[in-house]
Amino acid sequence: AIHIANRVTRIKPSPSSTASDRANALKRAGKAIVNLVVGEPDFDTPAVIRQAASAAIERGETRYTQNNGTPALRTAIAEKFLRENRLTVNADDVIVTNGAKSAIFNAFAATLETGDEVLIPAPYWVSYPDMVLACDGRPVIVTCSEQDGFKLTPESLRAAITSRCRWLLINSPSNPSGASYTRAELRALADVLLDYPHLAIMTDDIYEHIRYDDAPNVHLLEVEPRLADRTLIVNGVSKTYAMTGWRIGYATGPKTLIAAMGTLQSQSTSNASSVSQAAALAALNSGTEFITTSLEIYRQRRDDIAARLNAIPGLSCRVPEGAFYLYVNCGGLLGKTTAAGQRLTTDNEVVLWLLDSAGVAVVAGAAYGLSPYFRLSIATDLPALQHGAELIAAAVASLK
Ligand code: PLP
User: Fold this and answer.
1) How far is the CA of 298 from the centre of ligand 1 (A)?
2) 207-to-70, 89, 348 alpha-carbon distances in Å
3) What is the ipTM of this complex?
4) Is the beta carbon of 139 within 6 A of some atom in ligand 1?
5) How large is the angle between the packed helices 382-397 and 289-310, nearest 10 degrees?
6) Is the CB–ligand 1 distance for residue 14 below 6 Å?
């Protein structure tokens, strides 16, 4: 048999794909399933973006581009940072990647030595720890409790930093909790970070435009520009413009790091798709209408479904400031017994029971490093979400 390397056997496939696969298998077997697992917008990519991609194909933009992305797209990204984040970025210091995911992976691959630590606040996006492990690093999980709004505090951050820490990850708004840092909270974290110059910071801003609190988006570097020489900003068009399948992400940061990521990319995937780059360019220059419209739809779903779930005895959920997920506390269901006589003891069991008995697919908090919770995606139309919430309410009512 072919040997599979340790760097692969120590990681696992994404738990959200596993949950989706299970729901789809039940669906194929004829069961009605409300799938609330999805981590992507349910909208189509806007027409102007699709048309820009078609036009690029017809113009013959179908060849390799510069490894780090077309000059036109990198310029548009630099303009975006100035326009939306009030950050001055040179287009030469931008790399366009195959989704934000490959920016994060290449950054770890370019910087981690065996055993180097990466601080990952929990609940976290499922891929962070596995990407660190795949790059021989050591994920160090920093628990961010619901009482703290699922956010790092200056104290929890300071207590977690060791001399082996290479990176701190900040994902705001967060997948799965939606938690988003305020300017004052970023200021307080920056004050701690200034004390530890060996620590680099990676901000994953992929949900920056899906934010409900009307506070202008604030970036750590706007609050504290002195962190610029050790901060990598990761972003992309996937969530903002409903472009998950186009696979365009980007990053900017210190020159040496961007160069190292470029070298890795040049010897692995090479440039991101030329056609998708043309689409991303159109997206970044498409104004704010799609963003505003989709945000209002998410907001309506968030308010409606959070209220319904909070009315179910045994469940509670903090109304998130951002992203398109609800992170639902199911601690009140633990210890209860199902109609089939099973005593529920973990969020994993709650999630399997919800799938089997209610036909509702969600992802267990265990996958995100903080239990007992489940993540419910609101990137589905409101009637389906309301139906799902009713099914959950009925199932919970049947518990003893
Ligand atoms: N970062 C977070 C927090 C995400 O939730 C996701 C997608 O689920 C990504 C990054 C990946 O984005 P992309 O599709 O651009 O690779």
Assistant:
1) 18
2) 24, 20, 26
3) 0.99
4) no
5) 20
6) no
Is the shortest distance between the CB of 323 and ligand 1 below 6 Å? no
The per-residue b/e assignment along 39-74, b for 16 or more CB within 10 angstroms, e otherwise, is: bebbeebbebbeebbeebeeeeeeeebebbbbeebb
User: Which atom of ligand 1 approaches the CA of 237 most closely?
Assistant: 15
Helices (H), 319-381: 347-353
Give the Å distance between the CA of 36 and the centre of ligand 1: 17
Report how far residue 243's alpha carbon sits from residue 85's, in angstroms, rounded to the nearest whole number: 21
Q: Ligand 1 in contact with 41 (CB < 6 A)? A: no
98 lines ligand 1 (CB under 6 A): no
H/E segment holding residue 360: strand 360-361
250 in contact with ligand 1, CB cutoff 6 A = no
Domains and CATH numbers, the chain: 6-44+289-397 (3.90.1150.10), 63-284 (3.40.640.10)
Ligand 1 lined by 204 (C-beta under 6 Å): yes
Category of 33 on φ-ψ map: left (φ > 0), alpha (ψ -120 to 50) or beta: beta
Model's pTM, two decimal places? 0.97
Report mean pLDDT in 10-residue bins for the chain, 400 residues.
93 79 89 92 97 98 98 98 97 98 98 97 97 97 98 98 98 97 97 98 97 86 98 98 98 98 98 98 97 97 98 97 97 97 96 94 96 98 98 97
Closest CA to 51 of 220, 285, 216: 285
CA of 101 to the centre of ligand 1 (A): 6
